[in-house]
Amino acid sequence: MSTTTFIRTEDLKGLVADLRAAGVGVAGPARTSDGAVDYRSINAFDDVVLDAQPRNSLKQFFLPPTEPLFKYQRKGSDVAILEISATFPPRVIVGARPCDAAAVDVLDHVMNWDYKDEPWFGRREATTIVSFACPGGDRSCFCTAVGLGPDATRGSDLLLVPAGDGYYVEVVTEKGKRLVDAYPKRFGAGAGVDATLSYREKARASVEGHVPARPDVIRQWVQEHFEDPFWADISLRCHGCGGCAAACPTCHCFDIVDEPETLDAGTRRRNWDTCQTSVFTAHASGHNPRADQCGRCRQRVNHKFAIYPARFNDILCTGCGRCARTCPAGQDVTEILTRIVAMATGQGGAA
Amino acid sequence: MTELRELARRLLSEGTVNAVLGWEEGPRGARPAFVTTPDGADRLIFDHRCVHNLASYLSPRRPHLKRLGKVAMVLKPCDARAVAGLIRETQVPRENIVLIGVRCGGVVTDPDSDAALSEATVADRCRGCPDREGRLADHTVGTAGPGFPGPSHRAQKIEELAAKPADQRWAFWQEELSKCVRCHACRQVCPMCFCDRCLADKTQPRWIESSPHARGNMAWHVARAMHLAGRCVDCGECERVCPQGIPLGLITRKIASVVAERYDFRPSDDPAVPAPVGTYRMDDPQEFIL
Amino acid sequence: MDSTTPAAAGGFEPRITAFVCNWCTYTGADLAGTSRLQMASNVRIIRLPCTGRIDPMFITKAFERGADGIIVSGCHPADCHYNAGNYHARRRFAIFRELMDFLGVAPGRITFSWVSASEGAKWRDVVNDAVTRVRALGPFTAYRNMVVVQATAPLSTAAADHSPPEHGGGGEGLRMQSLAAAGVDSGATKEVQA
User: Fold this and answer.
1) Is the CATH code 3.40.50.960 the one for domain C16-144?
2) Strand ranges across the sheet with B19-26
């Protein structure tokens, strides 16, 4: 898929209006009541804020924080399982950042691993992701160190890069092509790829070098240093609050609960969960293999940079930097990964 | 800062403590520091970006920190109220910690901020701070800034909400609490939330549903507000760490004002002052009881 | 309007849950009964040893499960069977009441009272007063309907004592625990914690 096209800014506004008029849900980065920027439902392209990375990620659109799976009703010794119809109306995300779009693609592996996660893929199929090449990141961004970049197309159906009086459009997938073909008046000729080069270079330069681009080195060191005192050292400041997991676009662990509404009936749900809490690995026997924050901090890095790559040949991190930004205790993933590479390549790394 | 670093260096080299808990410069601004060697004392800083309440690191439920043994802790006067709370509730023996009080002039809300401390940038909870000197300390260093007078923006917002009819308040809180994803960051950073097993994690019976829907979130935030009533020191960490931007400071401040009005209690850095919930007076107001 | 008769047309009758202490209010309510005092019949009583035992979560749980109003009642100051339980409750509920009001729960839905073992008539008055007030406020659907999940169709029925059922229908991708293993037959929910 290597077709390209162009959309003028005016036509982009019109496209969003067309989608809304057709009853298609549209979401994008927009201001919240507390002055932040979150991905949320929007009604018009004017609401979209493109100069700040949204505080949340796209995860909630595919894996909601809480999701009812089915209802149950007990009658005597029988139990009826009552389906909750899951329909996924078509929707478009306009203004996704490439790190967030890529994250959704990364999660497809685990969501189709030991069984196919139907709600996840139902939402995936119903959603078209229109990403905007990122203008550049802050010091916590490191997408280029994990094989991505401010203009990466992974996970996007269309990638828009500012150029001229609108956006140069890379049509990445069949689904993206279907969107272009459905609204042909909005797309047309315009600035070519050359007009996007300096934007891309500037964005890249702003994130390069924050973490050495050596995921293979990181993976090996993590695999071979399970008991290293490094983990105890970095875990001292961690509160185990799980804010990193909540903000992370690739953290996907969930808990299944049955919630009774009456003595005989209730709902089974799945809810976001995080390995950073003390009860995550608590056994019924009382034993907890990750009894303190040392093991839990290690798990986060291990899962993302060693276990997931070993299983799926893919890194469970897209370098968005949200964990570093949201951490109340100043824990910084770029610092941790840089220190690991330094230790692995024999260039010191002690605090 | 030199005074602080020298003191820390001395405490560590003399073996009085195994570690000094303070602040250092991190990749994203000021952050908690754990200095275990005399040379490391040079990392310690204190300025208006030192927002964090370090008292939560004293909780006995953090085995990886207990292993450090005897520690010294740098604390702002407001943090001292939390330490006093932990001592009051017998979570931390006073003789096990060396407290280094730092005179404070107020902090901003974001430890990564480049902005200077000013009327526009000071954290709301610093307004009208009664005590920038601090008394619960073995050593006191630094110079106090002039501080910032009230009124608190939160107090204004609470008054606005109180003036509305109940159903509008309900709508406001339903919207705010709907953002909650039950990450429990607010609980984890709170120095007074130190229970080995939180009520929210108990399942027999399940008083607080774990699902981040409106009903579960309401139960959680009601429980947390009630469990902290009279114990919260208004350090503002819960609101700062919330990844969803929920204005938790409105609830903490409202409860604090109820407790102050009814029982003439304000958070104190004197562990001998009893907490208001868990104690009573014979003549407590009961105008609401038929 | 006579508060002992149900509302005319419309017919909403509030459900009131009362958390009362065993030694004073429960005995007082019993006295009201043996004295054949007429009162509204909307109240279901839950007996506790002392108001000091009442956790605010009892009240939130009652609202979650369909209560439109709550009564909390115990011994007068100086009469507590356990000396000071009601004093602790007094502080706790003073704060709780203001918290709920702040969050938007109409204060009229929650009633607090001291009713002694000999105050059958007072119990009648407290009940009638609470029922009238909550009836006027209407059903507390706002609380119990915070989360409503509609089921659309039965997926399967499975007897609890059989081996793991086939899960047919739309959820085929989801791996489900056998219902017997989930303890449905014994009615217990599985404790996941240590």
Assistant:
1) yes
2) B29-35, B19-26, B71-75, B97-102, B139-141
Q: Are A279 and B201 within 8 A, CB to CB?
A: yes
Distance, in angstroms, between B279 CA and closest chain A CA? 31
Write out pLDDT tens, residues B18-75: 999 999 999 999 999 999 999 999 999 999 999 999 999 998 888 878 888 899 999 9
A181 and A40 in a single domain? The answer is yes
When comparing pLDDT for B140 and C176, which is higher? B140
Mark whether A256 and A301 lie in a shared domain: yes
* A41 close to A26: Cβ distance less than 8 angstroms: yes
Of A291-300, A304-313, B51-60, B128-137, the poorest mean pLDDT is in B128-137
My answer on whether A180 and A226 are in the same domain is no
Q: Inter-chain contact B30–A237, Cβ cutoff 8 Å? A: no
- Tell me which residues of chain B, numbers 136 to 165, contact chain C at a CB-CB cutoff of 8 Å: 158, 161-162
* pLDDT (0 to 100) of residue C184: 28
Q: What is the DSSP letter of A303?
A: I
Q: Which domain holds residue A335?
A: 215-344
* CB-based contacts of B213, cutoff 8 Å, min separation 6: A66, C146, C147
Are B284 and C100 within 8 A, CB to CB?
A: no
- Tokens of residue A55, six digits: 């505080």
Maximum distance among all Cα pairs of chain C, rounded to whole angstroms:
63
- What span, in angstroms and rounded, lies between the C-alpha atoms of B227 and B128? 26
Tell me which chain B residues have a C-beta less than 8 angstroms from the C-beta of A56: 243-244
CB contact under 8 A, A82 and C191: no
Angle CA(B78)–CA(B82)–CA(B88) in degrees, nearest 5? 135
**Angle at which helices C85-103 and C56-64 cross, to 10°:** 50
| Among candidates C64, C105, C113 on the partner chain, residue whose Cβ is nearest the Cβ of B166 | C105
Chain-chain contact of A329 with B32 (C-beta, under 8 angstroms): yes
Task: Indicate whether A251 belongs to any domain.
Answer: yes
